[in-house]
């Protein structure tokens, strides 16, 4: 039995230290984050951490959440220590290719190419390590309701736009006619539709979501395979928006530059491209992320709507109607006659959202990025201004190899 306590321990491990019964050597100082769960008989956590310190030469800082009365985590990484603690997660915050812990599930070292965010591989996917505790807490504790709406994307695939549209469709009929008092006028879409893993469950916190009005509207970058079980098993609705991998990569590269200090140069695009092509990107591999939702949408089309960014840009009226119908709030004949569909399109457009003062200033959510950083160009085909012909061909070939067998294609604009 385990006490229902989370203890987060930050370890600064120096070269050639001993951990447990094995030696794990490291060529440079490495920061590790380890999450322990404590057995019920371990009443003195400081003593147990001290036992570990006796064999590892490390600096320890830990935090205990009194309010977490049921905080076990499933499907985590394990490493065995001689103390009575069981490690339930181990995260590397520097490249640690020479550290080989005894894990029940292998943990890949963080690649050096992406300076930020730092990534770690979990269940085949590369996750931002600062959100890993939030991912685990979300998977374990989030309880989906039948009327929930969950928006899913890979990063930089039209997430902000999808949030604005979905929010407008789901608010009351009277409110969606009133653009003068619309919440988007004063609040960024990411604050109105929070991310599960990086906002609501950030740092492993457990929010109380029971009093939120229905339908509850959430978002996530998690692959389908990593969604909370309740999300997959419930009758909640999932909307997935995908984007051409070329534009996705270019937009992602520009966005991740904003995480770096002003005096630090970004990762060269050529290096970042090789990582992306090799499947290493936030929440990637990109193609496996798409396929998870694509296959699920074919199996359960009444619950999962699969949309494409390029098609939404090309014919927004048709796809806005499609989205509204899926959400259970179709446009009435009178609303169609009044041109409400077109009004919503214009109100939620890139040009409209970027012109709002709230999106020119201020910060939103985790990691507290400036609102303006969520908007760049919002166009289709910008990749041709950045990628070489060879890069384009490599992504085309990989996409064909990965996707076409499952009937999934995307419009290659700008070729």
Automatic annotation (TrEMBL):
This is Sulfotransferase. Its EC number is 2.8.2.-. InterPro entries: P-loop_NTPase (IPR027417), Sulfotransferase_dom (IPR000863). One of its GO terms (molecular function) is sulfotransferase activity. SUPFAM superfamilies: P-loop containing nucleoside triphosphate hydrolases. Residues 1-20 form the signal peptide. Keywords: Signal, Transferase. Belongs to the sulfotransferase 1 family. It comes from Cinnamomum micranthum f. kanehirae. Residues 147-406 form the Sulfotransferase domain.
